Structures are given as structure tokens and as C-alpha cells.
Amino acid sequence: MGSDLFEHRAVISGIGQSEIGREVHRSGLQLTLDAILAAVADAGLTLDDIDGLAMFPGGGAANLPGYANGNLYEVQDALKLTTTWRLGQVEGMSLPFYGPAQAVATGQARHAVIWRTVKEGSAARNAGGRPAYGSTKPVAEGPLAWLLPVGMLSPVVQVAPYAMRYLHDFDVTREQLAWIPITQRAHAARNPDAVYRTPLTLDEYLDARMISSPICLYDCDVPVDGATAIVVSAAETAADLRSPVRIEAMAGVVEGRPSWEQWEDFGRVGHGAADAMWSRTDLRPADVDVAQLYDGFTIEVVWWLEAMGFCGPGEAADFVEGGHRIALDGELPLNTWGGQLSGGRLHAAFGHTAEAVRQLRGEAGDRQVEGVEVAAVTNVGGFEAGASLLTRW
Amino acid sequence: MDATIGIPPAVTDETEAFWTAAGEGRLLVERCASCGAESFPARGICRSCRSRDTAPAEITGPGVVYSYTVNHQRWLPDLEVPFAVVLVEFRGHPGVRVVGRIRGCDPDDVTIGMNVAVGFEPGPGGFAIPSFLPVADGD
């Protein structure tokens, strides 16, 4: 199917990451350059090959302290690059490689780099805790104007009522969903770059302080400092690349009301993107060997498992309980790097994409799953949703 | 419980009527003169038939809690916690969901499906914010 799909004219050619930690004493620009240089080398390219640059999010779109780093102009200047394509993306980018893939598939660039650099770990430390959303601005604008004034001061609080409704509608318990953070922590223990690597027990999970019910501390991703860069290349350059990865199918769909408090049913948030993605491939959920599903919160993994068809609506709790199916040796190894819950909030599926590429190449070290041919990568930021399958070259 | 610690709303042409009425204790949505459908928040266009002929209309409730959360985290210095936040819908008013605080009960006593009355309380920046009140079933 679909030899004319535009994503088949693009490959992911390189991934690179800076040091990742709760606090890394390097500027956002230096972390960004660390990641870009590593990604370009990983692709088997040199900086002179790069003619497309993009960052997420675009300039000015920083609602959280430490949220956006590596100014597009400064990075281009530092690297002495000539570009034929650039993009400063804000929310609306369903997947990190989507825009760059459009650029190389249409000949606007041959090799495009996109980066995402966070300094939210340092920012949280400086604020004495996780800072309030929107606290970088004096008033709450746009959709936030309804949320922040009533005390919904973080995405945690904004997603929590939908998690509460999910537990209510499907008679699901926190004890069941705890197996997502517990299992991902076990995976992080095998990832030297993860920020939390000591085992997490069910008792520790249940004893953790509540942030915004039913979401406790271990249901939230971990603010970190770190950068991820991804190189996307035109497929026709594959012979020049060290180890490219195919984009089998991808789609980004925003449906329903695009606001945190007006969404009709957040449990449905990824279904449109997943359905559109599956319509672009002959592969089926059973063909997926590893799943890197966006985990800003535990509940987002729940919704992705159902949206992607790994289980039916309301069945995710049974699917994850005990952790066996989602373990490294299970039927669907989940967030094999620890995910954002234990690996760090690298955000917007940049960390998930890097891990999918490693698993497909067989370069995932102690956490390598055997014989990975197909990796799923999904991203969600509130109502923004993107779903994809990456496959071995 | 003090709800004035926080970040105030930016007021726009479309939302000015809501915030002004909130200060008077009234909940305004947007009603379409062509098809009668209600929309919230106001966009200056009917979300059902896309007519531009819309005007503010008051909803008096009671509402029903679609869902809720109890926030325990002190996101800002001096923020008083814990408090409950509710998403409220209204029988006979499809297309309207309003987010607000709830007072008059322990935050842990809030439940999905409970009936609430429309109300407001002082919020950040001198604005009145939605703050619902529990009502007994059948009230």
C-alpha cells in the first residue's frame, strides 16, 4: 500500500542527545548544539550537508519557565549554516519529524534538523517546585484565560478531571494503572541516561503524595534539562547515511474542541490520529514490536494503548495490570527507555522518537528488545495528537 | 479558602461580557438568534450553524458535575490548597461546559454527577471567577 505516501520519501537518519539530568549546568544553547552535533554525526553526515532547521516550539511560545531553548537564529549563526527551509513550530506539530519530513519529501531541503531543548529541571529547582503554567506571563491568554484564574495552574490539574472521569466510567483503579510507571521505571533501570533508575514499588506509588487527584507524583513526567535533535533526510540519500529508519506511516489529527476544559471526552484524544495513521499502512497493531507512547502522565499512555488498538476502549487497565504484557520481554514492550515518567520530560515525543530509532537499529544497549522491526511512536499535548510507525530500513 | 492568588484572565472583545457579568454574579454564554443554540466560550459565531447573529444569554442552572479534581500542589507562593476544580454542564444546554471552583463542601465530597448551583467568588486580579455550590438532589 501507499508507495506514493509522502512520508516514504523521508527517513529519520540521525538522533542525538545532550547530557540529560534534573539539573545540567550548561546553557540551553550549548545543550542544543551538543544534541545537533551528535545527531548529524549519528546520521553519517557533516554540518555542511544540513540545509533545513526547525525547532519546537517556535519563538515566544513559552508558557513554562525553561520550556523553550536554542534560539533558531543563534543556532543557525553558531553552526554557520545556509538553509533552504526553516520552521519554528508551536503546538500543532503532531510529531517531531512530521514537518521536516514534509520539507525533505517536497525537495525544500535534503537534510533537516529539528531540536527540542528543555531547561525545566533547573527552572523547577529555581521556583522551589514545579512552576505554574503561564507564570511567564502576567495574564492568562487564549484558552488559558479560563483555566489559570480558577486554579488550574498546571497541565496536571487540567488533565486530572479527564483521568477521574476515565476511572469512573470504566471502573478502573489507581492500583491497576500504577503498573505503567512501575514497569517504565524497571526499563529506566537499564537506561544509563534515565533520571530515575531505582525500582518503584506498588506501595511507594500508592503512598506518593497526590498532586491533583487522581494523579499522584509518579503519574507525572519529570522536569529535566536536556536536548534531543533529530535529522530527517530525503530517502534518495539513503546510500549516504549510516543507519536510516523508515517512516512507514504517520498522521496528526486534532478533532473535538481544542481546549483542555471543553474537550468532549479526553479518553478519545488519540483515536482520530491513530485511525488516520492505520489507514496509511497494511501493518496492524499486532505487528508492533515496541511502543513509545507519549507519557506526560500515566493516563495518556492508557488513552494511547486504546487509541492505537493495542486493546479496546476501557481495557487498558487489564492490559497493563501486573506489567507482564508491557515489559521488555512482553508482547508490547512499552516506553523502553523509561519514558518521560522516569527518563525525563524531553517533551513532544522527541525522547520517544530517539528510543524508537535506537530499538530499530539494535543500538538500545541493556534494554534492547530482540528483533525489532516495527516501532510505534505517538505524541499528545493536550488535544494535539500524532501517531506513527517507524520500521527498519 | 482564598481564591484570589493566581493569574488573572486577559479580557478580549469576545470575553468582556462574561467577565463583567461574572462580577454581578451572572453566568453568560452566547446564544444564536438564528438557530437558538448556545455556545461557550463566546466566539462571535454560532458553533452549531455558524451564524454571526449571536448575543449574550444568561444561564441560571443548576449544573451537573461532568468531572472534577482536587488540587493539592502549591503551584504559586501563598496558593491555598487543597481545593476542588469542577467541569460543569447544564441540562437542556448542550454546548455549554464551564470550569470553576466549588465551595460549600469538603473538596473530597465532590462527586461526578452531583448537582451544583451557579455562583462566583473573588479571584485573581479583582475578577470574579465561577465558583459553584452543591445543591441537594431535587432542589
Task: Please tell me about this protein's structure.
The complex is a heterodimer of chains A (393) and B (139). Chain A is α/β, with parallel strands linked by helices and 393 residues long. Chain A has a single domain (6-127, 143-392), classed as Thiolase/Chalcone synthase (Peroxisomal Thiolase, Chain A, domain 1, 3-Layer(aba) Sandwich). In chain A, 30% of the residues lie in helices and 17% in strands. Chain A is built from 14 helices and eleven strands. Chain A has a nine-stranded mixed beta sheet. Chain A has a two-stranded antiparallel ribbon with strand order 5-6. The radius of gyration of chain A is 19 Å and the shape is globular. Chain A starts with 9 loop residues before the first strand and ends with a strand. With 139 residues, chain B is mainly beta. In chain B, the strands form two sheets. Chain B has a five-stranded mixed barrel. In chain B, strands 2-1-3 form a three-stranded antiparallel beta sheet. Chain B is built from one helix and nine strands. Chain B is globular, with a radius of gyration of 15 Å. Chain B has one domain (16-134). The chains are: A alpha/beta (393), B mainly beta (139).
